[in-house]
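Key idea: predict the complex, not the pieces.
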Amino acid sequence: METQKDKIARQFMEALPHARALGMRFTRLENGHAAIEMEYNTRFIGDPETGVIHGGAVSALMDTCCGAAAMSHPASPGGTATIDLRIDYMRPATPGQTIRAEAECYHITRSVAFVRARAMDDDTARPVATATGTFTVEGG
Amino acid sequence: MTRARPEPVQVVKQRRDAALKALVDGVPYIGFLGVQFERLGDELTAIMPFDEKLLGNPLLPALHGGATAAFLEITSIIGLSWSMLWEEIESGVLDPETLTHGPLPRLPKTIDFTVDYLRSGLPRDAYARAQVNRSGRRYASVHVEAWQDNRARPIAQATGHFLMPRRDG
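Result:
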């Protein structure tokens, strides 16, 4: 169930200008979990030879998804900022396919949220990328 | 002792600038974010002019962490490609005409990328420079820093590992 806080967080995250520019759409945001979809767009291409999306666009997706998961954790009063984010690129995303990121805030203290995420295209058995990050816990 | 007469400066500059332009213009995402490169000799500085669409929280306002990460990754990949191509551009093995109209050079692929966010990115232009710490036949390690008004106060830094393109022939 999406709580009132989750709903506000989702509307806030979807309204971020950079998230809008990349066409990010939340499919889940609750209880320390977030999922976002980003449709394929030729303007996001990083490798002109293959049409594969730039790693930077995947980074933006992962950062947004991880930040949202941190904010939606029941122990988080609200705001967050990224402290650090590591992304491992396992394979190129298949051109033309939507990329879907799922993040989980698996531990939170009064000051730091620990988050992990993975990104998939249509072949969900083989992730495109994984990420781990730490985020500040702000507000409250 | 005589040495070969150096090429006229404008010929050298034109060749280097054409090669850099071909490399950068080939990547749509660089254009999407509006990132540009300035060149002094072989040193590149990336510039990300401020734009509304780069904002995360519009209330603060602050640059989106994802925009900053992408800026750092673009700077790393172009910096690494540039250092690979430099020798070939200088020796004339690779002429800019081929770069512009022929097949684009294969770019390095990111293996992993770790961003360290140091300060909130302000709604201003951002700059970045990459340093190739190791560049082997297969793998490379690159460090990159981004700053805004003050070079001594970076907003973010990152280290990435890259798989080098195969260079057959």
